[in-house]
C-alpha cells in the first residue's frame, strides 16, 4: 500500500510521512501529525496500545479517519455467502459465525474516538472481478489467511469458486462496492 501511495500524484509531497511499522510501535521522530488514516485492519490492532501512542504524537486538532469496506454491497450471492461463512468461519476459528458480533468487533476502535461523523458510500458503477481473483482476495482477510487455512485452502477455494460461478457471467462477477468512513478525535482515556 505504501508503494502504491507513493506512486500516486502527490505521493512524494514533503508534508507526507510514510511509515512502515506496526501501528502500535511506529517511531516517534518527525514531530506531531495532523491526520491519521487507518483501514479495515485496525480491528486486528491492540487498541489499548495504539490509541495512547497516536494521541501522544498528535498535533492539536488531530483527526483520526478509519476507512473500512471493500465488500460487495448486497450482491446476488449474499445468502449463499452467508451460508459459506457459517460453515467456514467455525472450521477455521473454532468460533461460530455471528455477523452481528463480527460487525461490533469491526467497530470496537470507536470507543477510543469522539466521533465527528461517519458516512457509507456505495460505488456508482459495478466493479468487475474474475471469480478466481475474488476468491484469492479472501486470503487477505485474517480469518481466511493461507496460514490459518493450511491444507484446507484448496477445498476453501474450490467451494467458494463453485458457489460464485453460478452468479458469474463468463467467469466475471459484477457488484457494487460498499465503503464506510468514520472520523473523529482520539479520546483521553
Automatic annotation (TrEMBL):
Source organism, top-level taxon: Bacteria
Protein name: Methyltransferase domain-containing protein
